[in-house]
């Protein structure tokens, strides 16, 4: 039995996922590789299996480096890797902010860490040699670039051996990432897993209007109507995530929270709890969401929408995996409606719902309703937001936003002018009544 088969047996895998098959069935495993696949598609084990097949446990040196953009993802990968490493007698070290820079004992054979901390240890402090590695994995490459960590990865790779095998895994490959890939990857094998496999059609999308309530209040309305195995609640900021978590705890929900305001020790504990699947509810900030990868997610609740709507797709894509049904619930306010319309144009079919007496009740879709009022200006804004799908032009979102802002400004000015005229009429009537009373 080879190590890949042992890992499958240890993890209880019956078959390999598409990205795992593509990674492991390569004729030349020393060739550079780009795997385009979403979080949760099994890519972590794809590179774990590749790495464990290469490691020589008798050599006292770093043989594989795994770079990830967030501490959350580094903690989670480290927990998974340690389980496998202990089985094979291989040493693993975690290198992230908040951990000790110097560690005693033998040199690790696998290093997992964030680019900044690994660069510090390797190039600045010179306490950890990474240039002995035979393979370097860059996980979540698009996110690494978005967060500005590509320079640190560049610095690390520029000091490694020229024959190091580079494996890049990412949900997308943005154009801005291409120069980096051309610099360090030599004729890479590129595998793209079909997006239909990544973003399953068996995920329902519910749109729930918050109306006069806050996001956290609406979350409490929704929770009694669902019976999740694991429910992820996503917020757009650390502060909002902490507030939602506090509100849920006060109402008796046992949960784990994960966001940037936690102390390193708290974050580490949260990752371990998430990985062990001890809690049914996880409240996370938007940035932390890309570092979460676990099975059994049945429900996802989004409190509002992130600025970059790709993150909404990543959130909703946590559920409905491996042929299971999933439910993505988006709580929206009026300010969120442009994001909702944008996602509809991208093919997301929202069902407008609400919860009454702890049960789901379907509501009339907002697009089928009349404009908020019958004034010509309100109808103009309604037409702009619900214009029929046409050929999309560059910067159409900005132009649409400016157009709506101009119309809204005109509507506001019109309302003020109407109020002034009404007040003038009321003052004139009051004066007339006063004159009439005096003449009597």
Task: Explain how this protein is built.
With 440 residues, the protein is an alpha/beta fold. The chain contains 17 helices and 15 strands. It has an eight-stranded mixed sheet with strand order 10-11-9-12-13-8-14-15, sandwiched between helices. The protein has a seven-stranded parallel sheet with strand order 3-4-2-5-6-1-7, with helices on both faces. The protein is elongated, with a radius of gyration of 27 Å. The chain starts with a helix and ends with a helix. The mean pLDDT is 85.
Question: What's the helix and strand layout?
Answer:
Elements: H1 3-11, H2 18-24, E1 33-36, H3 43-54, E2 64-67, H4 71-88, E3 92-95, E4 110-113, H5 115-124, E5 135-138, H6 141-146, H7 150-157, E6 165-170, H8 178-184, E7 189-192, H9 195-198, E8 203-209, H10 215-222, E9 230-235, H11 238-250, E10 255-258, H12 264-276, E11 281-285, H13 286-289, E12 297-303, H14 310-316, E13 326-332, H15 337-345, E14 350-356, E15 359-362, H16 376-385, H17 396-439
Helix pairs in contact: 2-3, 4-12, 5-7, 10-11, 16-17
Domain Helicase C-terminal: 218-367
Domain Helicase ATP-binding: 24-191
Family: Belongs to the DEAD box helicase family.
Number of domains: 3
The averaged pLDDT comes out at 85
Number of strands: 15
Question: How much helical structure, as a percent, in the residues?
Answer: 40-55%
* N-to-C span: 111 Å
Q: What proportion of the residues form beta strands (DSSP E)?
A: 15-25%
The number of helical segments is 17
Which class of secondary structure composition applies to the elements?
alpha/beta
Shape: elongated
CATH superfamily of the largest domain: P-loop containing nucleotide triphosphate hydrolases
CATH class of the largest domain: Alpha Beta
């Amino acid at each position: 039995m080879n190590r890949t088969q042992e890992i499958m047996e240890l993890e209880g895998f019956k078959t390999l996922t598409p990205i795992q098959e593509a990674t492991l069935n390569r004729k030349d495993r020393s060739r550079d590789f780009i795997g385009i696949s979403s979080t949760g598609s099994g890519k972590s084990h794809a590179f774990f299996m590749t790495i464990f097949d290469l490691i020589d446990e008798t050599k006292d040196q770093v043989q594989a480096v795994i770079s990830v953009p967030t501490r959350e993802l580094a903690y989670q990968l480290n927990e998974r890797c340690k389980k496998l490493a202990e089985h094979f007698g291989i040493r693993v070290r975690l290198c992230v902010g908040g951990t000790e820079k110097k560690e005693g004992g033998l040199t690790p054979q696998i290093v997992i860490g964030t680019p900044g901390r690994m660069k510090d240890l390797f190039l600045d402090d010179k306490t950890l040699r990474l240039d002995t590695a035979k393979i370097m994995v860059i996980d979540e490459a698009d996110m690494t670039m978005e967060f500005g960590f590509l320079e640190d990865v560049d610095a690390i790779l520029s000091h490694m051996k020229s024959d190091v095998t580079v494996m890049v895994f990412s949900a997308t490959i943005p154009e801005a990432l291409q120069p980096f890939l051309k610099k360090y990857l030599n004729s890479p094998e590129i595998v793209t897993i079909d997006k239909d496999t990544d973003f399953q059609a068996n995920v329902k999308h519910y749109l729930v209007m918050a109306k006069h309530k806050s996001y956290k209040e609406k979350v409490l309305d929704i929770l009694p109507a669902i019976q999740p195995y694991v429910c992820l609640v996503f917020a757009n900021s650390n502060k909002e995530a902490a507030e939602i978590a506090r509100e849920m705890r006060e109402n008796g929900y046992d949960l784990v929270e994960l966001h940037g305001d936690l102390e390193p020790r708290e974050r580490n504990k949260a990752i371990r709890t998430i990985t062990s699947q001890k809690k049914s509810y996880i409240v996370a900030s938007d940035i932390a969401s890309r570092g979460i990868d676990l099975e059994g997610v049945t429900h996802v609740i989004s409190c509002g929408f992130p600025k970059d709507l790709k993150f909404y797709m990543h959130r909703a894509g946590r559920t409905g995996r491996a042929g299971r049904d999933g439910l993505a619930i988006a709580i929206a306010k009026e300010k969120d409606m442009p994001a909702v319309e944008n996602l509809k144009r991208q093919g997301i079919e929202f069902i407008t719902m609400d919860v009454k007496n702890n049960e789901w009740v379907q509501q009339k879709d907002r697009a089928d309703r009349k404009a908020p009022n019958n004034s010509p200006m309100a109808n103009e804004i309604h037409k702009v937001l619900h214009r029929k799908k046409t050929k999309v032009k560059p910067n159409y979102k900005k132009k649409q936003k400016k157009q709506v802002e101009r119309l809204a400004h005109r509507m506001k000015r019109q309302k003020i002018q109407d109020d002034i005229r009404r007040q003038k009429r009321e003052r004139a009537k009051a004066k007339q009544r006063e004159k009439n009373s005096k003449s009597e």
